[in-house]
Write a structure and sequence with these properties.
It is a single chain. The chain has 174 residues and is an alpha+beta fold. 16% of the residues lie in helices and 32% in strands. It has helices at residues 3-16, 101-113; strands spanning 48-49, 57-63, 69-70, 73-77, 80-88, 94-99, 124-127, 132-139, 143-148, 160-166. The longest helix has 14 residues, at 3-16.
Length: 174
């Protein structure tokens, strides 16, 4: 079984267990109007949800109906907590979702099969037209990761970007 098949199965299993309030891609931003239990942050290959009080830098990422992110490549240092501010300058809904290339591709396929599916994770920002959303993320693992818009058709149109997390200097590693 390929990595994409494993991710697809995991996503399908997760989607089946989502509560009813997460059933439709609406025009509201993620977290809006939901009473959600707070769970411990989950470590991902690309990092973990960040503490907003530890943010030292905000990176604006503009999105538009040309299906592009600007900038489409960002660099952060391992150990850095960053606010990614997603600014939708378009006339349609867009998303900013962080992940690995494989996970984003599998999730984009799943979104084509279930276009009304809504999800609410700390590494995602769902942004209506002329609005802003944000992700506060702690990049605690070095590597090259990705971000994308997974609304059906947007990923396929090239709405993707790259995040390079450079290793922290040896003396600052725990």
């Amino acid at each position: 079984m390929t990595t994409i098949d494993r991710v697809r199965r995991a996503l399908l299993a997760t989607a089946a267990s989502w509560p009813a309030w997460a059933a439709a891609h609406g025009s509201a931003a993620h977290h809006a109007g939901h009473s959600m239990p707070t769970a411990a942050p989950e470590q991902k290959p690309w990092g973990i949800a960040g503490d907003p009080t530890r943010v030292r830098r905000t990176i604006d990422i503009r999105m538009g109906d040309d299906m592009r992110f600007r900038p489409d490549r960002i660099t952060v240092r391992e150990g850095e907590t960053v606010r990614l501010r997603a600014i939708n300058r378009g006339r349609v809904m867009h998303e900013l979702v962080i992940g690995t290339d494989e996970e984003l591709a599998a999730h984009a396929e799943l979104m084509k099969q279930h276009p009304t599916m809504e999800h609410d994770e700390p590494y995602m920002a769902h942004v209506p037209p002329d609005r802003r959303g944000e992700i506060v993320w702690h990049f605690n693992r070095a590597g090259t990761f990705a971000f994308a818009c997974l609304i059906p058709g947007h990923f396929e149109a090239g709405m993707r970007g790259t995040i390079v997390v450079t290793p922290a200097p040896q003396e600052s590693r725990p």
